[in-house]
Amino acid sequence: MNAAYRRGLATDAASVAKVAANVARADNIRLVAVDLLRSWNQTQSLDSVTGRWRPLPQRNVDGLDESIRLFVPAMLTGSQELRTRVVEMATELGIRDIQPTLLTILHDTNQDEQLRLSAFKALARMADDVTAILEGGLKDPSEAIQLSAIELITSRDPQGSIERLGQLAESGSVRARQTAMQLLGSIPGEGTESVLLKSFEQLHK
C-alpha cells in the first residue's frame, strides 16, 4: 500500500481501496488504507511503513473519487471506528454517491453516536438541501448532533442565531450552555453582549 500511495495514481488508489473494502483483512490494516485514501491529494509527510520523514509533493489526482467510489459500500462493513473513518474519508474526497447510506446511518438512532455525528456532518457538507439536514439535526435525539447543527447554523447566519443561542445558554444542559456561550462570544455586536450578560446572570442565580 505504501508503494501505491507514494506513486499516487488513480489506479494505485483503487488498489488501496480494495484493501480497505476487503472484510477478510484485519481492521487495523483497513484503517491504514482508509487513512491513506483520505490524504491522497493532501499527502502525509511521514512514511507509513518506516515512520521516517519522507514528504511527498501535494497532488491533485484526476479521477480519484471515481476510482474509489465503487469500493465505499464494502468499506462500510466493519467496526464503528472503520465506518466513521470511511464516512470522513468519503466526505473529504467529495464522494456524493454515499449520501443515501449517510441518511440511513443518520436516521438509525441505534447506530453509534459518533458514526451518526460523522454522517450528519458529511451530509451538512454535501447534501443538496443542507437547510433540511440542519433543521433535522436540531430535532435529533442526540445532543451531540443538535449542538453540531447549532454550530453550523450559527456559522451560516450568526446574527440570526443569537436568539436561539440565548435561549440555549439559559435553559440547556451544561454542555449546551457552554457551546452556546462560546458561539455567542464569537459574534460581535451589542445585541450579543446583552444576551451574554443575561446568561451569566442566570448562571449565578
Brief digest:
The protein is built from 13 helices and no strands. It has 205 residues and is an all-alpha fold. The N and C termini lie far apart (59 Å).
In words, what does this structure look like?
The protein has helices at 2-7, 10-21, 27-38, 64-69, 72-75, 80-93, 99-107, 113-126, 130-138, 143-156, 162-171, 174-185, 190-203. The model has no long low-confidence stretch (mean pLDDT 90). The chain is elongated. Helices cover 66% and strands 0% of the residues. By secondary structure, the chain is mainly α. Helix 3 (27-38) runs parallel beside helix 6, helix 8 runs parallel beside helix 10 (143-156) and helix 9 (130-138) crosses helix 10 (143-156).
List descriptors.
single chain; 205 residues; mainly alpha; 66% helix; 0% strand
Pick out the low-confidence regions.
none
Overall pLDDT = 90
- Secondary-structure element string: HHHHHHHHHHHHH
Largest beta-sheet details = none
The termini sit apart by 59 Å
Strand coverage percent: under 5%
The number of helices is: 13
Q: Can you give the helix content as a percent range?
A: 55-70%
Radius of gyration: 21 Å
Give the overall shape, derived from the CA principal axes.
elongated
Compute the number of strand runs.
Answer: 0
* Class computed from helices, strands and strand pairing: mainly alpha
